């Protein structure tokens, strides 16, 4: 039965700690975890639309990781920029919304009230609207 | 004749056992999730995001809203390995 089917999984995992080659420009990674990213997702879509579209089209041409490194760096920098701005301008509403998401299985429909506060704050201070594509 | 409460005691004990085991399960789920509610209906995307959270903060439910990741994050991704397969499987 299941004890007899061969399994090819090894018990150890491999972590490759060699850094990227020195000729690739160094860009810091986005440090936000899943709940803040989900909270800021529509604003990242509005603020970084051009860079994101560039990256997606580039990936469409060729899915090799080496092909789209430059567009990827731009996307990362834009996301870091937006998260810094969100924290400076609307820090309290942002924190309230993603804490609410974290307590509710990260489902957006359960956290509409903090989301309303965040949307008004972001629209006043940063001019970004939440735009649901296709609606 | 009044209701014999002694006969209902076993039912009370059985119900109490249900409550005790359910509370025990809820407590285990709560404390193993960093004192947050357990997440459900997780698809592959959410599991991958939780693994990313573990690489960023050290725990599957840890959250942080730093803009910039710690330097270890760039190289601490995990690859799950396989042993060589039998030739007969091809």
TrEMBL record, chain A:
It is found in: Mitochondrion. The keyword Repeat applies. InterPro entries: NDUFA8 (IPR016680). One of its GO terms (biological process) is mitochondrial electron transport, NADH to ubiquinone. It comes from the Eukaryota. The keyword Metal-binding does not apply. Keywords: Disulfide bond, Electron transport, Mitochondrion, Repeat, Respiratory chain, Transport. One of its GO terms (cellular component) is mitochondrion. PANTHER family: NADH DEHYDROGENASE [UBIQUINONE] 1 ALPHA SUBCOMPLEX SUBUNIT 8, NADH-UBIQUINONE OXIDOREDUCTASE. Accessory subunit of the mitochondrial membrane respiratory chain NADH dehydrogenase (Complex I), that is believed not to be involved in catalysis. Complex I functions in the transfer of electrons from NADH to the respiratory chain. The immediate electron acceptor for the enzyme is believed to be ubiquinone. Belongs to the complex I NDUFA8 subunit family. This is NADH-ubiquinone oxidoreductase.
Automatic annotation (TrEMBL), chain B:
Accessory subunit of the mitochondrial membrane respiratory chain NADH dehydrogenase (Complex I), that is believed not to be involved in catalysis. Complex I functions in the transfer of electrons from NADH to the respiratory chain. The immediate electron acceptor for the enzyme is believed to be ubiquinone. This is NADH dehydrogenase [ubiquinone] 1 alpha subcomplex subunit 1. It comes from the Eukaryota. It is a single-pass membrane protein. It holds the Pfam family MWFE. InterPro entries: NADH_Ub_cplx-1_asu_su-1. Keywords: Electron transport, Membrane, Mitochondrion, Mitochondrion inner membrane, Respiratory chain, Transmembrane, Transmembrane helix, Transport. The chain crosses the membrane at residues 12-31. The keyword DNA-binding does not apply. Belongs to the complex I NDUFA1 subunit family.
